[in-house]
Hints:
- With 273 residues, the chain is α/β, with parallel strands linked by helices.
- The radius of gyration is 20 Å and the shape is globular.
- The chain starts with a strand and ends in a 17-residue tail after the last strand.
- The relative contact order is 0.16.
Amino acid sequence: xxxxxxxxxxxxxxxxxxxxxxxxxxGREEFFIIIGPNGAGKSTLLxxxxxxxxxxxxxxTLFGRPLQDYSRRELARLAALVPQATDxxxxxxxxxxxxxxxxxxxGMLGMEQEEDYQIARxxxxxxxxxxxxxxxxxxxxxxxxxxxxxxxAICQQPAILFLDEPTAALDLAHQVSIMDxxxxxxxxxxxxxxxISHDINLAAMYADRLLLIKEGRAVVSGRPGQVLEEKLLExxxxxxLLVDENPVSGTRRVLPLPxxxxxxxxxxxxxxx
Length: 273
């Protein structure tokens, strides 16, 4: 049984079709990353997968059951979402923020039990945020805050974790830290990971499979080596690229080529150094 099956999904806003007959499958415990240029429909797709946007046609199946058959509470117990941006203006304590992830599991009185507190502590340990427990969200760095939001998602004990560009606006060290955390969750907790990323090279090093979309349509899905083809990426992103091998990971590496390094009619490519 697949974790996610999407069949000929279409979705529109104000009469404009954003997703066109898009199909995909995500296996259980897979690290699946969606890539594509700005405006391709990546975030809209994630909203459809988490039932926060109503689709026009097609179907979405989550762990063998139609998405629309889940109640909001059932879905919150099965899937967790880490959005691209989180409002940090509210001075919630980190410990309280993480504990919010237990909401779908609480009884009618909505009171946390010792088991809920223990699960929250374990989530903070897994994300290395225990030392931040008494600090408030507005006192954290971007990387720290992202780890706390992931800890809250883990606290839901989901079978699948959806993330919208979790490494956006983070420095290199924090990007790798977040991706290592997600890989550990997938491997140790058997969580399926589905995320959006603009960083193709980071995606190539972690993803089991990639989905490249453009203008709301699936271009190609497969292992990174199958998706990261120079001509395919140039057509999708609309710029000159160089695709070679990452000497460390052995995966493919994508480099954008500035105009000064590309040849134009009657003018050779500029070389420096």
